[in-house]
Structures
1.
Amino acid sequence: MRIRHALLAVVATTALAACGGQQATGAAPSASATPAANASTGATPTTALTITDPWVKTTESGMTAAFGTLANPSAAPITIVSATSTGSPRVELHETVGEGTAMTMRPKQGGFTIPAGGKLELKPGGDHIMLMDVTTPVQPGSEVGFTLTFKDGGTMEFKAVGKDFAGANEKYQPGHE
Ligand SMILES: [Cu+2]
């Protein structure tokens, strides 16, 4: 079963390029991670991750997605295993596969991993944080809260800003594994 929805996907590659090129606009909200109490394992708490220019595609209801650039300056990879949001009771970590009209998104197995010293750009047509069931409209300038949970148990909160984005349609494969 596939559910079409009018978000995310970028038909025009120019739009994708333009979007991907916009990073670190000074006024962007920022966030820092909260370390997990993980004394029993001695694992390094996830404190290093940052997100730059987080935003959410405006919508009246239904599905939308959050984007931004995650950066991991630490010496170990960081994996995001789940997310919650004030904007939707159900949130999934999605990847996009295929191209053009065949572009399809689905839950990303294992979550998002940001390599040591690396970045992961969440963007239309790529990985994104999916809000599955928006009940309060996301308007331009709206603030939507997110909490990311890491593999080591740590969490990170950030706020994303509503932005209009003229994306195209993407197909969604629920539960694809
Ligand atoms: Cu999605």
2.
Amino acid sequence: MKAIRIALLIIVAIPIALGRAQDEASGVVISRDRGPDPAAIKLAPVASGFTRPLYVTHAADGSDRIFLVEQVGKIWILKDGLLLEQPFLDIGALISPGAVTQSFSEQGLLGLAFHPDFPTNGAFFINYTDLQGGTVVARYRVDFDNPERADASSGEILFQLSQPYANHNGGHIEFGPDGYLYIALGDGGSANDPLGAGQNRQLLLGSLLRIDIDGAAPYAIPPDNPFVGDASARAEIWAYGLRNVWRFSFDRATGDMYMADVGQNQWEEINFQPADSAGGENYGWNVWEGKHIFAGGNAPNHVPPIYEYSHSFGCSVTGGNIYRGEAIAELEAVYLFGDWCSGRIWGAWRDHELNWHADELMKTVLPISSFGEDEAGEIYVIDYGGKIYRFEPAV
Ligand SMILES: [Ca+2]
């Protein structure tokens, strides 16, 4: 993180010319005069032929490799623009069969995150639904004799939770700048949150968890988690009031977190959590759907989304990343996200008073299953139909 900040300090002179302003303390660009110009960007195809791709990420190991997650249980490596012949990992035998047999499913291999010390310890983590449909987070290690393959026998389950319904499994996992692993769990599924999981802090469902995978086996609770010592809540919970987070991400320059929570029938939302948050945010579900009362009732400490859109513009939000790459100056400090149904892609940005805005950047015809970042901070769009695209300058 420190190295990134120093690199950004060097280029602060350029953002000022382009109408962006940097945070005084860190030198990082956080606000803009205006939204990004849609005519300045395009999506360029990167790779194709995947089966239900759901995510791309990188190992932060200096290899520039892109790791691509297929819902059907495989992880592939794109290296120097080429797809390696053998998958990095194949856990097809461990996942819910519906992820393969049904025309659409929210089960299967859903998340991948590399340990911050992956270059030295070779550890990475996956989130999948198992043969019974329950959520599993497991630790694997790379094959030390072949860095392009995982050791398939190294799997070690750290976390398991049965799921009452097949949908709303969340599934995204990511390490925060604090080195802890964050795990998104949906409200358990069906519709309308029948378990009341969003507001029930004694249930892990409907929450974002934060665990320390290095502190103990299988994991430790970070001592500063917001509900440590609170008998009315589970200590793993970092934030709650969530319906089905489908992708969250940390701004690699600031540590702020962006989280997309899929709505019920009317409102899709983007939530923002500043890097200095102490946790405990209540994102409202199912008392609220977006900024609108849903079931009603009491939602203490409700944090409304920074942006919402109605189902006139889509039906299921797909969260992305804030752009910190170098290829497209026009996108700096823009949070890119999209919609699974409408194929629309938006860019959210802050003005100099730190008010949020979002502009539609393009309307694709893609079922957008995810966004993802490579090691250089360039951002990819995942087409569930099998293709991977990358944002590039239009000219
Ligand atoms: Ca909410």
